[in-house]
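Read as amino acids, tokens; as here:

___
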Amino acid sequence: MGDRTLRDVCEEARRLLDAERYSEAIALCQEILQYFPQHLRTYRLLGQAFLAIGDYEGSADLFRRVLSADPEEMVAYVGLAMIHEEKDHLEEAIWHWERAFELAPDQEEIREALQRLRSLREGGEKPRIKLTRGALGRLYAREGLRQQAIHEYDTLLLEDPERVDIQVALAELLWREGQREAAAEVCQDILGKLPHCLKANLILGTLWHGEASEEGGKALLEIAQALDPENSVAQTLLGPLSPLPPRRVRIPPEEVIPPTEEVEEAAVARPRKLARSLWERIWHGLIGAKPSEAAHP
């Protein structure tokens, strides 16, 4: 087999997941990480595969790694919500479903899961799910109403300053609105909490590029490129202002790493507390998404 692009190999791993060929998908993801050990999309795919074979600890660790670099990754929130529900951690499951709902309030499956768990907690009929400030801000952003979105994010952060996902969304809007100093300040705060946050590294690295802090900016951009070697997020986020051009990254031909015995012997099963129809709709609906595409305006 000749050289393959990173994008093609990731797509193959996704197809293997969709076909429920989990051990092959895991082996392919492990191969990718040999060459790109911080590749964010591969960690997400691997987390999905571990969840599917019932390795909840491994899956949770991978999804948490993903969120440390992309706090807006909806698939990671959904995966962690499923894992916490499986472990009877009701409050934690609800919290993660709420974050997923804010990122995709139009996803009926997520709304249903959140309603079901809130009903269990409150001991009554399924409650009506209202839009939170986070969800409202994201809806405003998607409609191009950036000032309204910024207001919602600022208000929410006054109530809960630890919402790094909202800080990332705010930093992006400030960047898009040309409020460079405010965006830089938010990004610096984010990186004090999550040093590998992809968007914060990209925005701050770009702002420092060509200035007195150019060396610091270069280091931030190197972190970002390690997470996203093709610079796809840089192109979407920064457009023509991106110091990182699009890249066609290749993986050398190599024998696929054989799956471990644990993977081969693992029972493939959905989390038992989710109805099969709900599991299948969520899983197959989200599994084909590109990194964070559902999460970003």
